[in-house]
Amino acid sequence: MQKGKTQVDSSFYQDLEEASLSAFWKVIAPLQKGGSPRRGRIWRWDQVHPMLERAGKLVGPDQGAERRVLIFAGAESSATTTPTLTASVQMVLPGETAPSHRHTISAIRFVLSAKGAFTEVEGERIPMEPGDLIVTPAWSWHGHGNESREPAVWLDGLDAPLVRALKVAFFEPDSEEHQKQEIPDSGRHTATGSVRALGAHSSQAAFPVVYPWSEVYPELQHQAAGAGDPYDGVIVEYVHPATGGPTLPTLGCYLQLLRPGEKTRTHRHTGSVIYHVVRGSGYSTLEGERIDWQKRDTFALPSWVWHAHSNSGSEEAILFSFTEAPALRTLGLYRQEEKSD
User: Fold this and answer.
1) Is 0.85 topped by the overall pTM?
2) Are strands 189-190 and 209-211 parallel, antiparallel or unpaired?
3) Which of 34, 187, 192, 281 could form a disulfide with 294 if both were Cys (CB 3.0 to 4.6 A apart)?
4) Among 78, 20, 80, 90, which Cα is nearest to 49's?
5) pLDDT tens-digit profile of 40-73?
6) 232 by DSSP, 3-state: which?
7) Per residue in 87-114, pLDDT tens?
8) Which residues contact 125 (CB under 8 A, 6 or more apart)?
9) Are the C-beta atoms of 162 and 135 separated by less than 8 Å?
């Protein structure tokens, strides 16, 4: 018998398709190469903000748009930023109220400008201040409002693509029945960006967690007195006050600081990351491609991409980020690799 590639009649593959079957040897090669995007992507605030202002004049809660949200659309879909994460920017104008609803998708909100605005989670009204991180756990009722004279704007982070891929995405709008229900007092929970948690534990599965900028930033500065991490600079993790673990089971949140002139070493890891520039300017190198960024820009890092960060300015650069790494760790799929410079 002659060695080499086996010749298979094309009718065999046609019959397989008609039987809703596929040949492993035909599909495994492309899968082994990996199909996820390898290039980063950036959304510059000087382009995003004018579009958000235009949206403010065109749509709103009383004009067919329950949420005035602009998604940072990735290469694979206009509804997602990476294959597993969605990042977007939301605006609530003075006097507006975004109606309450709930869904199995978890969300985090990093406040950009919102003096006098609030979000309400499980019946608890939470004032918004710039730099605050507010967590909306899965299946918790939440809505937003703005009682100030200025637009309220924040960054939304969601695990929507992951939840949809698992076919467990459920949504429920507010109703009169829900409004008549008495919601148990969950208590106020506030945590800093360190391993230290503040506030008592709660028996509620879904309760609001707030990380005030006024407490997180001083902790970041305190950590800056040390050497920092060679791959991320000075970095702190937003820790859940009840579990001591990540911010949410599917989302981990971080705040990092790069000193003027600081350059990190190169590494890569599974799990995509969405970065938002809180302060300063610099650039990140993703698979050898330089992406320059400045305050209010947002950029996406795909999974398993070599990357490093640099502060090219004269002041500290601060990046807020979130990732689906906690879900990968739970599934035993998280890994990282360091590059020898």
Assistant:
1) yes
2) parallel
3) 281
4) 90
5) 899 999 999 999 999 999 888 777 678 899 999 9
6) coil
7) 999 999 999 999 999 999 999 999 999 8
8) 118, 119
9) no
Residue 274: burial class (beta carbons within 10 Å; 0-12, 13-18, 19+): buried
Q: Show the tokens assigned to 136.
A: 């909306």
Token pair 């949420």 is at which residue?
A: 67
Segments of the chain with pLDDT less than 70: 1-7, 29-37, 64, 175-207, 341
Helix (H) / strand (E) containing 86? strand 86-92
Structure tokens given for 337: 């690799």
- CATH homologous superfamily of domain 37-338? Jelly Rolls (2.60.120.10)
Which amino acid, residue 300? A
Residue type, 130: P
State the chain's maximal CA–CA distance in angstroms.
Answer: 83
Query: How far apart (Å, rounded) are the C-alpha atoms in residues 261 and 131?
Result: 24
Domain-by-domain residue ranges, the chain? 37-338
Rounded distance between C-alpha atoms, residue 136 and residue 194, angstroms? 20
Name 111's bridge partners: 154
Cβ count near 278 (within 10 Å): 22
Structure tokens at 53: 């202002």
